[in-house]
Amino acid sequence: MIMTTTQTTQTTQTAQTLTETVARAAAENPVRIDFAKANPKAFKAIIALNAAATEHLDPALVELVQIRASQLNSCAYCLHMHVSDARKAGEDPERLHMVGVWREAAHFFTPQERAALALTEAVTLIADGGVEDEVFEEAAEEFSEQELGGLLALIFTINTWNRLNVTARKVAGTDERVR
């Protein structure tokens, strides 16, 4: 796709406006706590758990799980970060648009991805009735035991990050890695 000078100017202006909007939101909603600074040992432990969790999982699947949990937990900071990471890694934007409605758009996702998304929802929303046998068994059929252990650890980790970042009041778009 070839962009005209007008389109390029509009895109640049939109990016500048977005940057200004993010900066204004961050100024109006200052972060409550810098958890990495307040408890570096715990922060590093979460990073280590995340690294161990993703070791045997497909990177695209990792991002889909993190996106879905972040949607469910209303963590705009993590959602922005993981959608950006997925796009940079080459994930199809069509699939990213469908993560929140994956059941209705099942054809966008593989059986393994659907099983991971179902397990992500069940674990994230555990207070709504636990993890049903059917959901767990479906995941166990799609993943090796080692992969399933990693998937569970990933779901635990993203839920931890979501809760930290919502509590700390981190603002979407302020992750330095995304810029």
Model description:
- There is one protein chain.
- This protein has 179 residues and is mainly α.
- The protein has nine helices and no strands.
- It has helices at 5-28, 35-38, 40-54, 59-72, 76-88, 93-98, 111-124, 133-142, 145-168.
- Helix 7 (111-124) packs across helix 9.
- The longest helix is centred in the first third of the chain and has 24 residues, at 5-28.
- It is globular.
- It starts with a helix and ends in an 11-residue tail after the last helix.
How does the SSE layout of this entry go?
Blueprint: H1 5-28, H2 35-38, H3 40-54, H4 59-72, H5 76-88, H6 93-98, H7 111-124, H8 133-142, H9 145-168
Helix pairs in contact: 3-9, 4-5, 4-7, 4-9, 7-8, 7-9
Briefly summarize what is shown.
The chain is mainly α.
What proportion of the residues form beta strands (DSSP E)? under 5%
Principal-axis shape: globular
- Helix coverage percent of residues? 55-70%
For the largest beta-sheet, the strand count, sense and barrel status come to: none
Please work out how many helical segments DSSP would assign.
Answer: 9
What is the alpha-carbon Rg in Å?
18 Å
**How would you classify the helix and strand content by structural class?**
mainly alpha
Q: Which segments are poorly predicted (pLDDT under 50) over 5 or more consecutive residues?
A: none
What is the helix/strand order? HHHHHHHHH
What is the residue-mean pLDDT, rounded to a whole number? 89
Strands, count: 0
Distance between the termini: 23 Å
